[in-house]
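Structure first, sequence second, as always.
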């Protein structure tokens, strides 16, 4: 698939009340539900880049839909339906508010239940990489927790670790202690957040290994829907996770990634200070990032990424 043949969607403009425009997704108010559109925007180091990645929104939306269905027996989620037929949105709008739906909604959008989002990024780490590796090298800790000496980059951890961070609307996310989470949300919700994050990660990691992919780490977001903890936003995508090629895995060095780590590496090597504005990405970085995302989707699901017209 020649990804440069497909237009890049950086921003949407629908005749609906805008609920929120995030780093990657545009959410619209349907009344009792939300319409979430995954654009082709990409962020790194908590900054939205000026360059989009072809077909990225399709991958994020469809892979999240795949995981929401697969993990529903472990954790309820906010998805009502993924939009393949744009006219399915009709059932959420009164007749006088229906409009001519753009074709780009197909494959990159879903209708979800409204849930009260909890302002915490629930990070789970099964391997030593990224910011955890940087922290370990400097302090011998991961998420503030003391770790055994002598660990190498990309080592598998004895047990997956829950290392939550803040959910910043602007600027960088910051580490959160478990004590802080308990103070904000109370003990029962705090315990459930941690337990479910670890349970979902373990289930997904076992499945991914059967597809030749190591999920090194990932992050989840939760909300409250009718008093129940609910998985929201996205799930186990190349944006929110580190996906490694299991056949090529070797501890002690960086890994071949099917995510945005090579893009982060390019940005770091460019000398960018990780503050806005971010630099434009060269065509080869855009193309290779798109190809990695598509490969992650196709390996994980066993399906070709078919673009709906």
């Amino acid at each position: 698939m020649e990804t440069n043949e497909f237009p890049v969607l950086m921003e949407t403009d629908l005749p609906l009340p805008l609920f929120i425009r995030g780093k990657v997704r545009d959410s619209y108010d349907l009344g009792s539900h939300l319409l979430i559109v995954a654009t082709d925007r990409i962020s790194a180091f908590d900054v939205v880049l000026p360059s989009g990645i072809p077909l990225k929104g399709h991958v994020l939306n469809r892979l999240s839909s795949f995981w929401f269905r697969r993990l529903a027996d472990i954790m309820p989620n906010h998805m009502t339906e993924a939009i393949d037929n744009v006219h399915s949105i009709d059932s959420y709008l009164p007749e006088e508010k229906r409009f001519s739906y753009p074709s780009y909604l197909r494959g990159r959008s879903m209708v979800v239940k409204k849930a009260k989002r909890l302002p915490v990024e629930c990070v789970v780490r099964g391997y030593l990489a990224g910011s955890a590796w940087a922290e370990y090298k400097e302090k011998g800790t991961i998420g503030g927790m003391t770790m055994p000496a002598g660990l190498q980059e990309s080592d598998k951890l004895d047990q997956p670790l829950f290392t939550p961070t803040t959910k910043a609307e602007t600027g960088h996310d910051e580490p959160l202690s478990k004590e802080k989470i308990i103070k904000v949300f109370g003990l029962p919700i705090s315990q459930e957040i941690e337990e479910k994050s670890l349970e979902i990660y373990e289930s997904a990691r076992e499945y991914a290994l059967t597809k030749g992919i190591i999920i090194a780490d990932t992050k989840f977001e939760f909300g409250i829907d009718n008093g129940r903890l609910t998985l929201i936003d996205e799930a186990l995508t190349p944006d929110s996770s580190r996906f490694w090629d299991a056949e090529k895995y070797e501890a002690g060095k960086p890994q071949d990634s099917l995510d945005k780590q090579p893009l982060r590496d390019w940005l770091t090597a460019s000398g960018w200070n990780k503050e806005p504005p971010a630099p434009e990405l060269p065509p080869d970085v855009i193309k290779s990032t798109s190809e990695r995302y598509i490969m992650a989707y196709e390996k994980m699901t066993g399906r070709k990424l078919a673009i709906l017209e």
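Margin note: The first helix runs from residue 56 to 70.
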